[in-house]
Specification:
Helix content is about 40%, strand content about 20%. The chain is of the alpha/beta class and about 190 residues long. Helix 5 runs antiparallel to helix 6.
Length: about 190
């Protein structure tokens, strides 16, 4: 199988990584396909299996861990798993495309360790923790307690930024989109 490239975007919640990844996916010349993660949590709202996530029971997820079917995985809370199935990357590479991930920090770094030559790991950094709080509140999707939890986690995630190949500071979205495009385009074409 012809291996494509792996493009990892990681960031604290509210940094803008999903917006950046969606923008990059629209750039046809980059030939990217989004890696759909697997999770053991229940679908939220309008989420669709095999489009937003591969929804598995905790038991199914654990069985796939035992059979070494994941490129990377993590138990975020008790029996609440997230991961990348090897078959997902194989599916995208079989289409002759490059894989783009919108993934948490630890998962992104695991992929980089497993495929150091094929991967660019990009950390999307908010301009400040205060700005991150403002963005999370503007979403109006989570309780104050959940926002506090995400902000606390963000501090730890920000400390990992130097472990990534590149850092995009998302102070101005238009500039961040241009920076991210340039990084990905240069990596794919080298």
């Amino acid at each position: 199988m012809n291996k494509g490239k792996l493009i990892v975007f990681s960031a604290p919640s509210g940094s803008g990584k999903t917006t950046i990844v969606r923008h990059l996916l629209q750039q046809e010349e980059l030939n990217l396909e989004f890696s759909i993660s697997a999770t053991s949590r229940a679908p939220r709202g309008e989420e669709v299996d095999a489009k937003d996530y591969y929804f598995l029971s905790a038991k199914e997820f654990k069985n796939k861990i035992k059979s070494d079917e994941f490129l990377e995985w993590e138990e975020v809370y008790h029996d609440n798993f997230y991961g990348t199935l090897k078959t997902e990357v194989e599916r995208i590479w079989a289409q002759g495309k490059h894989v783009i991930f919108d993934i948490d920090v630890s998962g992104g770094l695991r992929i980089k360790r497993k495929f150091p030559e094929e991967t660019i790991a990009v950390f999307v950094k908010p301009p400040s923790i205060d700005e991150l709080k403002i963005r999370l509140k503007k979403r109006k999707t989570e309780s104050e307690d959940k926002i506090k939890m995400r902000v606390a986690k963000a501090s730890a995630e920000l400390a990992t930024a130097p472990l990534f190949d590149e850092i995009v500071v998302n102070k101005n979205l238009e500039e961040a989109l241009v920076d991210a495009y340039s990084l990905v385009s240069n990596f794919i074409n080298k």
